[in-house]
Amino acid sequence: xxxxxxxEKIARLKKEKNAVILAHYYVDGEVQAIADFVGDxxxxxxxxxxxxxxxxxxxxxxxxxxxxxxxxxxxKVVMAESxxxxxxAHMVDVEKxxxxxxxxxxxxxxxxVNSTAEIKAHSDVCVTSSNALKIVKKLPNEHIFFIPDxxxxxxxxxxxxxxxxxxxxxxxxxHKSIHKEDILKAKxxxxxAMVLAHPECTTDxxxxxxxxxxxxxxxxxxxxxxxxxxxxxxxxxxxxxxxQKNPEKKFYSVGHRQFCPNMKKVNLENVLESLEKMAPExxxxxxxxxxxxxPLKRMLELAA
Length: 304
Ligand code: 13P
Ligand code: SF4
Hints:
Blueprint: H1 3-16, E1 19-24, H2 29-34, E2 37-39, H3 41-48, E3 55-59, H4 62-71, E4 76-79, H5 94-103, E5 108-112, H6 117-121, E6 125-127, H7 132-138, E7 143-147, H8 150-159, E8 164-167, H9 173-176, H10 180-189, E9 194-197, H11 203-206, E10 211-212, H12 215-224, E11 229-233, H13 238-245, E12 250-252, H14 268-277, H15 286-303
Parallel strand pairs: 1-2, 1-3, 3-4, 5-6, 5-7, 7-8, 9-10, 9-11, 11-12
Bound molecules: 1,3-dihydroxyacetonephosphate and iron/sulfur cluster (SF4).
């Protein structure tokens, strides 16, 4: 089947099944192009609570579909690719949370949405890279256990010196592989370019960034800036929207490692297959879902 035929079939099936397609900026551009809504993790979690269709087809990694299901139990949430999972989501365990709670009874467990439903269920509030600072600032607790991402945690901690942070050693392998030395080399070739980086990058890498933000914030910054060239320090899927919105501007990558193999498992073929079968569906134990819903709801309230 040609790409054109696949796209036509997807459009037809979407109507027939009363489904809406949500996609993250890191999936391939051709998948972003057929989605109804494309955005960062926060936008997608929030959007999932307002769509009117009976079913959500998620083009992203597991924790994103899980969050959509946790917040909308009455909807069918189908993943384009069930094996697309974020390794960072598994880089903390419940035992560690219990240990920290025992050691610091006043602690707030702040959980980056890149986490499993089980971890969320043991946390006090969820955050994404676009709202972590705003939310942690609002918490009354002195001690903050930031899980699973150490880099985002350190980035926030630097801005909140009155809080006492406890870090976890989780990381995103894609952002960790974007090195400061490679950015400096790219700067030598493009000295006029601004460096825009995602806070999942290491502290060392962030030290040479002109702007730090979530995927949406990076796109908004580049779009509203008077500058015309940018070195982009995040996953390469973002280039699609950057170029759609700014065809006259220049965007440079730092190297060949800005590639999330899990996000790239999503393609037009598996979107079509999932729509045909309305599977694989996200299914969660009701007790787990209810416990994981609380920190996600708190995020939506505090971020509003
Ligand atoms: P945002 O979409 O919140 O910027 O997060 C990036 C990411 O790594 C999602 O997996
Ligand atoms: Fe996970 Fe990193 Fe891929 Fe995002 S880019 S899904 S944090 S591995």
